[in-house]
Amino acid sequence: MHILILGAAGMVGRKFTERLLHDGRLGANAISKLTLQDVVAPTKPADTRIAVDTVTCDFAVPGAVAPLVASRPDVIFHLAAIVSGEAEADFDKGYRINLDGTRYLLEAIRAVGDGYKPRVVFTSSIAVFGAPFHDKIDDEFVLTPQTSYGTQKAIGELLLADYSRRGFLDGIGIRLPTVCVRPGRPNKAASGFFSNIIREPLNGEEAVLPVSEDVRHWHASPRSTVGFLLHAGTMDLKVLGWRRSLSMPGLSATVGEQIAALARVAGPKVTARIRRTPDPVIVNMVASWPRDFSTARAREVGFTTAETTFDDIIRIHIEDELGGKFVA
Amino acid sequence: MHILILGAAGMVGRKFTERLLHDGRLGANAISKLTLQDVVAPTKPADTRIAVDTVTCDFAVPGAVAPLVASRPDVIFHLAAIVSGEAEADFDKGYRINLDGTRYLLEAIRAVGDGYKPRVVFTSSIAVFGAPFHDKIDDEFVLTPQTSYGTQKAIGELLLADYSRRGFLDGIGIRLPTVCVRPGRPNKAASGFFSNIIREPLNGEEAVLPVSEDVRHWHASPRSTVGFLLHAGTMDLKVLGWRRSLSMPGLSATVGEQIAALARVAGPKVTARIRRTPDPVIVNMVASWPRDFSTARAREVGFTTAETTFDDIIRIHIEDELGGKFVA
């Protein structure tokens, strides 16, 4: 089985690649080849039984993605995107990468023809939903993005469904919760602070909290996120009918609950490193973001539960990223 | 006030143009200029106090729409589209006209800049919804198109909302019911038979009914449709927040109820001209179409009720299109 990952150098892409290389298979199928694409050079893993190609290119340049699908990968994970903050700051860039790029990918697949019909896993986002909404957003709630990023993801979902219905590919869109705790340095995602306030204090550093503690949000760990991708890459998609995108399980928690969990897991000296500096721009953006979901459909089709306590999310971060240790 | 109509030569475009010329104003504003665009030459009305420009061009060719918005029309009615049957039959053409064309329009408006922020009325469609759905589709139901046409309209709605939110224009998308009775000759819309079975028999001609009589659908007359456009062009859009598209009022009726109404209004000799010839392709398409709506939101913001009986829809057709007469 040949797997192509677009956006392989991003945080989720790297974690997912590691997992695929570790497993050597996707579901029942041994992986023979892995193609890793990103706009920054993906790290070529050493010492692997699997043939790994790395491709450094901007997939949203016309023609760039065609060579990647010409070799007919069996499964394509499309993780490439400009994040929410950047798509909001740079209107043209967001549409070029998140909309045009996605469409070029789908068109390149269609152009291969000759019975080629790969599985395409598209990482969508809970940003496809915007206020006003119910306390829990269910599987039949209208798409009402209130960011350009969310708009571009919602359009990607619609295209994916139509290309699937027309038989050009077999697509599934998974709306990821905010991935928390995101390892590494802060990126331009406006949601970054949800991770920063956990990660930086555990590293002995200060973190800025730009919103109030009663802000509620929807989280899943990187480990759960990788699990969602694996299931999306292997499950039988017929059960979805033509509704090809669905919200992934997650944990609904307030910022206050996050901080309380951090105090329990790591102690009050760690939480004391959180500095409260309200940022009206972020406060305003966050106000329109989803807070909680009913993900019955995802659970029915085998997407297993994400974490059930924020303590677990923090413990997973300490285990997977910090070798079990933190700066107390 | 300068008004631009894209797709002015279509059935709805022609009826709407007639009405604007008749009224001489849109809401409180006198119309000083009307620009009529279509890919086939729009008829230049004779004998009008209003300056009328006609432009024959394919608005979905890159660059074609820029000259139309360069003169900064105050209100733009975007009625141009490839219909459902054709968009399904010709994948590329549907995406080119219905998606790329719409995006070129929005981009051309944005490119004018310098405070230009026109009202944009986009005719969307109930085809943005697809089965399975509730008996009545409400204003918060998820967009689940099951045609390429519906997908393209749903994407148009999302773009319109984002461009409005970003302040590039002031947009409203109105999801028209199936316009019935559609005058003139059959077009390539798969929904054409809903009109054909009324129009052709009233003209003394046979019409083919390709589905069973228990098929339920959502209708509004051309007269109501023009009323929706007028209101969309004049109402205060602030009440919509960033949810800029909404389903218009209509009448839910089965094909059997349509035929019974025709028998009441025009007699059994007329209904005897309906020939039942099931077409599995159309039966299959129609099975995924919406049947009934709860349009509370549209009514709240002033879109007045469409017809309440199919008898009225037929009478309006006889009045507006047939000079009060039909072939008994």
Layout of helices and strands, plus pairs?
The structure is a homodimer of 328-residue chains.
Chain A: E1 2-6, H1 11-23, E2 25-26, E3 29-30, E4 33-38, E5 51-56, H2 66-70, E6 75-78, H3 84-89, H4 91-112, E7 119-125, H5 148-165, E8 170-176, E9 178-179, H6 193-202, E10 207-209, E11 216-220, H7 222-234, E12 245-247, E13 251-254, H8 255-266, H9 268-271, E14 274-276, H10 280-287, H11 296-300, H12 310-321
Parallel strand pairs in A: 1-4, 1-6, 4-5, 6-7, 7-8, 8-12, 9-11, 10-14
Antiparallel strand pairs in A: 2-3, 11-13
Helix pairs in contact in A: 1-7, 4-5, 6-8, 8-12
Please state roughly what percent of the residues of chain A sit in beta strands, choosing from under 5%, 5-15%, 15-25%, 25-35%, 35-45% or over 45%.
15-25%
User: Which regions of chain A have little confidence, pLDDT < 50, spanning 5+ residues?
Assistant: none
Helix % of chain A is: 25-40%
Number of helices of chain A: 12
Please, what is the oligomeric state?
homodimer
User: Could you give the count of β-strands of chain A?
Assistant: 14
Q: State the CATH superfamily name of the domain at 2-177 and 221-247 in chain A.
A: NAD(P)-binding Rossmann-like Domain
Largest interface: A-B, 24 and 24 residues
Taking strands numbered 1, 2, ... along the chain, how are they ordered across the largest sheet of chain A? 5-4-1-6-7-8-12
The value of Rg of chain A in angstroms is 19 Å
What is the correct CATH architecture of the domain at 2-177 and 221-247 in chain A? 3-Layer(aba) Sandwich
CATH top level of the domain at 2-177 and 221-247 in chain A is Alpha Beta
Average pLDDT number of chain A: 95
Distance between the termini of chain A: 45 Å
Estimated structural class of chain A: alpha/beta
Shape of chain A: globular
Biggest sheet character of chain A:
7 strands, parallel
H and E string of chain A? EHEEEEHEHHEHEEHEEHEEHHEHHH
